[in-house]
Amino acid sequence: MDAYIKDFVHIIKNANYSNTYKMAWAKALVELSLEMDYEKPSTETVINLEAIARKFIKYYYNHTIFFDLEQGNNPNKKPEMIKHVNELIEKTFTLRGNKQPIRFEKSITLLKNTDTFKSVLKKTIRTLKADVSYRFLVLSGKVYHHIYTYTQGSDTLSIKTENLSKLKDNATMLFDIINYRWSLILENMNSSPRIGKKVKIIDETNIRRKPLNKYFDLIELDNPSKTCFICGEPIEGKPALDHVIPWSYMYSDDIWNLVFVHQTCNSVKTNSIPDLSTIEKLEARNKRLIKKLEERNLINKDYKELLLADKENLVRKFWIGCQ
User: Which residue, 272, 228, 230, is CA-closest to 247?
Assistant: First the structure.
């Protein structure tokens, strides 16, 4: 492995577990290496901190709006970046008139000319200057000056173009290492399942939620009158399907976690964690649905998932975990 890339990887692998800023910084540099035009190898390339800040906002916005992941080891003091992106998320909800999560890449068309985005961008740059830009180079008392050149307080850094080209040539490997390390750090801060998948999915063009229509007939076996699981009132027309334990925590569609609800009730609920009575209600529904499937001799994949969830007490375990 090239010496420069070896040192870059060494910094990633040995970053401390206090927060995820070094991972985001490394990822932004690699991503920018794929986007920038290069001059002759002997020259230096200047990178504006604003360009890195925009990457930071994208990463933390998507992690937060979809999965609400803790990014620091102090639950009583959230990292500044989470405060910044939460401002943007609230602004997005206001502009769109609903709380349906969408990626930053789509939200930016609404946000880019707002005072909120301009303010968050400035605050993010200040955060990078104070907490990330120089500290990335420091590991166990050693300063890796050759990774890039940065003067504290500056709005730019410079990196040898040949080294930027090395980041580009090794981008796939570096993204894998960064995502893996980011996942390890997050596992220390979150009890959420599938952390690795949640980190990796942010790199995909679309975070696709699979159609849930296949579950309608199954859920209707226990709820033929289509009563809303949340408010208890009958649903006129086609019901919405709701993840009782939020999808942003589970990142999966499981029959044992899906119920009929009013669309309005579903929108109001957003990603809130259910209370104990709701969990007990879901557990009772799952037991009834298991019996309904057995009565009809429908011993299929969905039946086995329900049976496993009941036997392993998955509803209760995941509910406790998401708190």
Answer: 272
Burial of 99 (0-12, 13-18, 19+ CB in 10 A): middle
Q: Could you give the C-alpha distances from 15 to 6, 184, 200, in angstroms and in order?
A: 14, 11, 19
* Same-domain check for residues 229 and 311: yes
Which tokens hold the place of 74?
């102090």
Say whether both 127 and 251 belong to one domain. Answer: no
Q: Contacts for 122-128 with beta carbons within 8 Å, 24 or more apart?
A: 123/80, 123/84, 124/53, 124/56, 124/57, 124/81, 124/84, 125/49, 125/50, 125/53, 125/155, 127/56, 127/80, 127/81, 127/84, 128/25, 128/49, 128/52, 128/53, 128/56
Give me the mean pLDDT over the 166-176 stretch. 93
Strand, helix or coil for residue 156: strand
Q: Give the whole-angstrom CA distance, residue 302 versus residue 29.
A: 44
What letter represents residue 15's amino acid?
A: A
Structure tokens at 98: 């609903």
Given this model, what pLDDT does residue 42 score?
Answer: 62
H or E element in which residue 44 lies: strand 44-48
Between residues 245 and 122, the one the model is more confident about:
122
**Of residues 136, 121, 176, the one with CA closest to residue 20:** 136
Q: Which residues contact 196 (CB under 8 A, 6 or more apart)?
A: 179, 180, 183
Total number of domains constituting the chain: 2
- Domain-terminating residue out of 173, 201, 229: 201
Whether 221 and 310 map to the same domain: the answer is: yes
Which pLDDT value is given to residue 156?
96
Interval 61-77 mean pLDDT: 85
| Residue 60 one-letter amino acid | Y
